[in-house]
C-alpha cells in the first residue's frame, strides 16, 4: 500500500448531495490535505436502478462550489482509472472467480422467491443452501443455464476485529454475518464488493465513511484477508441527527428542512459557511474557534477531533455561522451576489443598492432575509403609536411630536439629499437644542420606518426613501402622536 495518504469519496449518482455525504467528502478531503495526500473521486453506479440522470454532474458541481478539488476522478483522469464503476465492470468477475477458486466464495443458484427455512445462521436472511454444493452440482447447474450470483463464504466461527481511528477496537462474531452477494446475476458487482476491489486497486490508504457502515466492515476485512491484501485504516463518522419541532432528535431527513447542499445554497447560505458548519458536525478543533476558512480547516483537521456521539444539525447555529461568513465577504462581491435576492430591480431603490447592501451585509444571516429586512422601504407598514414611547430616550408622545416638528422644519434647508448631509443637519439640530442625538432621532426613526428595529439609522432610511416620502411619513407620524 502507498506510503502517501490516499482518501476517496465514492458517492452514488442518485440525486442531490445530502449533508451526510457532503460531510464524508469534506472529512476525506481534509484528512488527505492535512497529511499531504491525495483526494480521489470515484462514482459508484453499480445500482443502475437508482441512477438519476444528471446526478454525476451535480456531484462535480457540488465539490467545485464547496472548494474541494479532487486530485483524480472521472472528469480529470488519473493513473488508476476508470473512476466510474460501471466502466470497470469487466474486472470484478475475475476477482470474484478468484475467491471461488480459493474457497472464500461460492456460486449461488437460489432465486429471490425461494424459501429461506433451515437457515444455518441464527440471523434472518439467506439460508446458505448453495454453500456446500459439490463441484459436480455446480457444473450441472451452470450447464443447465441456471442464473447465479457469487456469494462471500463467511467463516462460521471466530471473530473479525479492527482498530477504528474514531471508535477504537471493534470485534464482531463471524456467526452474526451473512454470506453477502459479491457479484450479481447480471455480472455487476454489489457495492460491498466493488468498493473493496476499487479501494485496493486505487491504493486507498484511509476509508472515511459514516458509522452506518460499521456493521458491514467485518465483511470488507474478510475480503481483504481472502485476497491477502493489506487493509486500509478505517475512520467511521458519527451519525448526523436533526431536531424536530417537538424537540425530538432523529436521523437527519427531509422532514427537518433542507438537507442537501444545493437546497441550502438556494436558501441563501454561502458555500463557505455550509462547509464551515458541516466540518463542526462531528469534529472539534480543540479550541474555541468556530469560524474557519477552508485553508484553516485543511491546516487544523485531525482525526483526534472527531467524536463518536451523534451530531445535531442546528439551523440556528448554521445561521450564525453563515452570518459571520457574510461579514467576511468583499463588499463588492456581496453587492453582486445579494442583489438578485432583494427583489428591487427596476425600482428606485435599485439605484441606492450600494448603500442598502452596506446596511445588509453586517446584519443578515442569509441572503433570503433581505426582502423582509427592506420591505418597509417600499411600503410603510402599519404600526402602533406606542412605539414612540421609550424610557431610555425619555420619549413620550409630547416629545415625539416636538422632535418630529423640528425634523420637518429643517428638511427644506437640507440641500443635496445624502446621508452625510442628513447626519450633519440633525447633529446641528440636536446641538442647537442641547439634545442628545439619540433622543431626537428616536421618534424620527419610528415615523419613517414604523419599526422598533431597523437596518440602519433614521438618516439612512430617509436617504433611501427620499425627501418627499420622508416628509410624508414624518407628517403621518406626527398625526399619530397628536
What is the helix fraction of residues, given as a range?
40-55%
Strand content: 5-15%
Global morphology: elongated
CA gyration radius, whole angstroms: 32 Å
Which spans of ≥5 residues are poorly predicted at pLDDT below 50? 117-123
Largest sheet geometry: 3 strands, antiparallel
Number of helices: 18
Mean pLDDT score, rounded? Answer: 92
* Span of the ends, CA to CA: 84 Å
Class inferred from helices and paired strands: alpha/beta
Order of helices and strands: EHEHHEHEEEEHEHEEEHHHEHHHHHHHHH
Widest β-sheet, arrangement of strands: 3-4-7
What is the fold's blueprint, element by element?
Elements: E1 6-9, H1 19-34, E2 38-41, H2 55-66, H3 89-101, E3 105-108, H4 135-143, E4 149-152, E5 159-164, E6 168-173, E7 181-183, H5 191-201, E8 206-210, H6 217-227, E9 233-237, E10 240-243, E11 249-251, H7 261-266, H8 271-279, H9 294-300, E12 311-313, H10 315-328, H11 331-342, H12 353-360, H13 370-378, H14 397-410, H15 419-432, H16 437-449, H17 458-465, H18 467-481
Parallel strand pairs: 1-2, 8-9, 10-12
Antiparallel strand pairs: 3-4, 4-7, 5-6, 10-11
Helix pairs in contact: 1-9, 8-10, 11-12, 14-16, 14-18, 16-17, 16-18, 17-18
Give structural notes.
The protein is 42% helix and 11% strand. The chain contains 18 helices and twelve strands. It has helices at residues 19-34, 55-66, 89-101, 135-143, 191-201, 217-227, 261-266, 271-279, 294-300, 315-328, 331-342, 353-360, 370-378, 397-410, 419-432, 437-449, 458-465, 467-481, and strands at residues 6-9, 38-41, 105-108, 149-152, 159-164, 168-173, 181-183, 206-210, 233-237, 240-243, 249-251, 311-313. The strands form five sheets. It has a three-stranded antiparallel beta sheet. Strands 11-10-12 form a three-stranded mixed beta sheet. A hairpin with a 3-residue loop joins strand 5 and strand 6. Helix 8 crosses helix 10 (315-328). It is elongated, with a radius of gyration of 32 Å. Residues 117-123 have low confidence and may be disordered.
